[in-house]
Amino acid sequence: MTQAAALQEELIWEGRPTWKAWAGRWIAGWVLLPILVGLVLLISVWLRTRSIRWRTLRTQPAVAVGPDGGANWRVDPAIAGGGILLDHGWHALYCVVRWGGAPRGIAATLEKRRFHQWPIEDTATIALDLMSGTGEIYLTWAGEERANTIDIEGELGQINVAQDRVVLKTSAGERQWSCPPALSEGSHHQDWFVGVVEDFRAAAVSGGKGNLEEALLCARLIDLVQRSSASGGVRLAIGD
């Protein structure tokens, strides 16, 4: 069974989403971050997107000890399902696809650059053919610093995001905004999850599926990333 099929069985019960559809990696929590809410507004007003570059740099995986006090579950593939691809790639994928449109092809490489003792990748490089252009995602636990950057180029200009700073450059000039918290501060923010809980409540009451289709698409893309890397980084058409 593919990861996408397994996920669908886990997230839907009697035609309605379970809480797991909103908890864990498959929530679209990052899009509720204030800096990314503002980014969507800038894209809609100023850009017709041509390319998106997403970079997540970490010096090591976040420490997440299980309830029994055991080893970090993030580096145990039996629990985490994979390495940085599952940890950070999920969020990068749904953001890039939301901004750049439906993906048509994907190629990827998964590597162990620093933590060779673990049975998981610590670095992922992903290239996407999007409806609007191209997408590039680079994720690593083997970086020299903790940072997040997003660079978006469009027909009317470009947007650069670094930490909590957003810069818009167009023919009319340049504007900058500070929009804390920074992306690199992590994803455990109480204000994000008010919207997540409300989405779950509304879907549970109405019988809607919320962001399920987006979650299943991300699961399919992760399957394709793993297949592409196992085949030497070949490009795979979406739907293969």
Topology:
Blueprint: H1 3-11, E1 12-13, E2 16-17, H2 34-46, E3 49-57, H3 77-80, H4 84-100, E4 103-111, E5 123-130, E6 133-140, E7 147-154, E8 157-162, E9 165-170, E10 173-178, H5 190-206, H6 212-230, E11 236-237
Parallel strand pairs: 3-6
Antiparallel strand pairs: 1-2, 3-7, 4-5, 4-11, 5-6, 7-8, 8-9, 9-10
Helix pairs in contact: 1-6, 4-6
Describe the structure.
Residues 16-26 have low confidence and may be disordered. The chain starts with a helix and ends with a strand. The chain has helices spanning 3-11, 34-46, 77-80, 84-100, 190-206, 212-230, and strands at residues 12-13, 16-17, 49-57, 103-111, 123-130, 133-140, 147-154, 157-162, 165-170, 173-178, 236-237. With 240 residues, the protein is of the alpha+beta class. It has a single domain (3-237), classed as 2-Layer Sandwich (Dihydrodipicolinate Reductase, domain 2). The longest helix has 19 residues, at 212-230. Strand 7 and strand 8 (157-162) form a beta hairpin.
List keywords for this structure.
240 residues, alpha+beta, Dihydrodipicolinate Reductase, domain 2, 9-stranded mixed beta sheet, two-stranded antiparallel ribbon, 6 helices, 11 strands, globular
